[in-house]
Amino acid sequence: MAEITEDVLVVNKLGIHARPAAALVQKMLVFQSDVFITFEGNRVNAKSIMGLLTLAAIRGSHLTVTCTGDDAEEAMAAVKELFASGFGED
Amino acid sequence: MEKTLRGIGVSPGIAIGPALVFDVGRFEVPEYRITDTKAEWARLARAMSAARVELEELHRRTSKELGEVHAGIFNAHLMLLDDVMVLDQVKEQLESEKLNIECLLARVTRQFQQQMEQIDEARFRERAADLVDVTDRVLRHLLKTEHPDLGQVRTACVVVAHDLSPSDTVSMDKENTVALAVDSGNVTSHTAILARALEIPAVMGLLNASNHVQPDTMMIVDGTLGIVIVDPSRETLARYEAAKQAYSEEQVRLRHALETTPGKTRHGVPIETQANIELPIELAHSRRAGAHGVGLYRTEYLFLNRGTVPTEDEQFEAYADAARALVPFPVTLRTMDIGGDKFVAHLQIFKEDNPQLGLRAVRFCLERPDIFKTQLRAMLRATVHGNVQIMFPMISGVQQMREVKAVLAEVMDELREAGIPFDAKVPVGSMIEVPSAVMLTDLLAKECDFFSIGTNDLIQYSLAVDRVNERIAHLYEPAHPAVLRMIDMTARAAKKAGIPCKLCGEMAGDPLYTELLLGLGVTSLSMSAVSLPVVRAEISRIHMGKARKMARKAVNLATASDVLQLLDKHAGERRSIHPSARDGASHGL
Questions:
Q1: How many domains does chain B have?
Q2: Is A2-88 a CATH 3.30.70.1520 domain?
Q3: Is residue B331 domain-resident?
Q4: In B464-558, which ranges are continuous DSSP H helix?
Q5: Are both B97 and B159 inside the same structural domain?
Q6: Which of A79, B31, B92, B200 could covalently link to B103 via disulfide, CB atoms 3.0 to 4.6 Å apart?
């Protein structure tokens, strides 16, 4: 079982508010792997909207993502793609 | 003893009935030890699936009645219901503490809520209230407490509430709910929109009425004047019974008369009368009332009460539906007027000290071209589905009009390149609601295919009166000579340029002003559909020559009361539909 850890950067203007959080959760629910995000000492499940919102991650925040499970690589790729695209926002 | 409460009339009409005090109340969550954690977890699972069924039903119903845009909130609730972190923490504490599931669920929710409330920025906070709403729903199933249900009201009643959530409002029994009296909220609240759409008289912003009203107390709700009378005396009751009777007879009579008087003056001059709408359901109302199309489609309602910006396709569907439903009549789409009193959590980034003078309407749109262009694309795509017009709110000068038109031209180019069909000749107009725009109407007219005077904001800005501030609300005077001169100046400039001068504020729906407005040169009136019959009837009594003479006299009067006196004199033959129409007029209704 693989465990991968990488950093991602919040690039969209409004940060991880309700819509991006919902988008991330919906994407992550597809994967069997556990996905956790750590930011400023706060560690939350990336499959939880409430968890993601409590991070209050604004633009420019560096988040640490850890994926654990058989499809960890695919999950990590999906996380990075979403963050890089700014969740389709600007 | 009789008590009169003043609030904001958000949906017109008079209703009388016993109070149904809708109190969602707080329920006690017990705390006790358990031994069988599996059985406890299974209880939670059952309560959650019951809640899921309810939410799916609410989503289905709202989507059908009010459109998918308004149903979105229940999708968010469904996602929160299954939130993995909330459930993980509940499960963890269940194993370690062996306490009953209600207590743990309430505790975990409270922790999340507290954590969220510490965050400074509103956009991260907005979901906390939704989580509490969802948790309450599950808790009520666990505790078998019934949520008071407005869906099954036995007799006709006036619903009195401190607040009505979207779930409560949507599930309301529309047959037996004769009126609403709500402590919180204002004209833009979800409940207000629904009340207008359903033609139920409603008063909101009553502050603490629900504390003072005992169940089954007799209530009078006057949604036109924004007045609620609790426990009326026999005389008051009789007076309002008569007023209510007169009002409904008048409505019936006017509806009937409508078929024979299609909005023409006494000498057959046709006057365009249109509807202001917000919700899909109102398209049917406006057609039934015989509107010549929609003069104001408030698109911001697509953006309110939801967590995300509506997509281009979502918006296109809404605009195209309206266009198709109204053919051959036009639908005038106003680009979003967001900011000011219409606060949208997911878009509003900064708290402003003075939002009415802040980043709102086209100012906001020019700041956020991404959102603006998406809306314009959707509007342009709708132009091939009917008779569409586009108008921009809060234009304050020529430069700004040119800027928004430049963005529109850009979007047109993009559509052309993409080979997407649209009507390049779509009429484009400016709302006239900022005094600086009035001063420049001769120049602005060259940039516009039409003007539409928004009297609500024009009065507010011209007289420097915030009409929501009750201490100065009496200074909000539609009949103020300065306001009349503004309308006069705009209509003259429009006439000179050969473009229509429409008017879409609340003045348009008040028959007291109809003759004056036509006399000043307004060519088209757009109002809430419920006002159409009475204004149409008024138009049929108007003699244009006399109206023009009266208007000339009015613009030279010194005070609002002088103007009202003149209007009264002229309206001699007009039958009063309301016991205190004069009163209503001076309150800007």
A1: 2
A2: no
A3: no
A4: 481-497, 511-520, 532-540, 544-555
A5: no
A6: B31
Beta carbons of B361 and B394 less than 8 angstroms apart: yes
Interface probe for A, chosen from B83, B132, B373 (most Cβ of A below 10 Å), is B83
Q: What was the pLDDT predicted at B349?
A: 53
Q: Which of B535, B499, B547 is nearest to B263 (CA)?
A: B535
**Given an 8 Å threshold on Cβ–Cβ distance, is B85 in contact with A22?**
no
Residue B586 lies in a domain: no
Domain boundary among B116, B143, B170: B143
Q: What is the dihedral of CA B308, B313, B318, B321, to 10 degrees?
A: -170
- The pTM of this model reads 0.62
Each residue of B75-126: pLDDT tens digit?
Answer: 888 889 999 999 999 999 999 999 999 999 999 999 988 888 888 777 677 6
Based on the fold, state whether residues B191 and B45 are members of the same structural domain.
no
- B83/A49 Cβ within 8 A: yes
How far away is chain A from the Cα of B402, in angstroms, using its nearest Cα?
Answer: 25
Considering B143, B175, B208, which residue would you say is the last residue of a domain?
A: B143
Same domain, B99 and B127: yes
We report the CATH number of the domain holding residue B99 as 1.10.274.10
Which residues span the domain enclosing B159?
3-23+149-232
Number of Cβ pairs < 8 A linking chain A and chain B: 69
Cβ-defined contact of B85 to A90 (cutoff 8 Å): no
Question: What's the one-letter identity of residue B494?
Answer: A
At residue B253 the predicted structure's pLDDT band, cuts being 50, 70 and 90, is confident
Beginning with the edge strand found earlier in the chain, give each strand of the sheet holding A42-45 in spatial order: A2-9, A62-69, A34-39, A42-45
- Residue A41 Rama label (left phi>0; alpha psi -120 to 50; beta): left
Smallest CA–CA distance from B124 into chain A, residue? A17
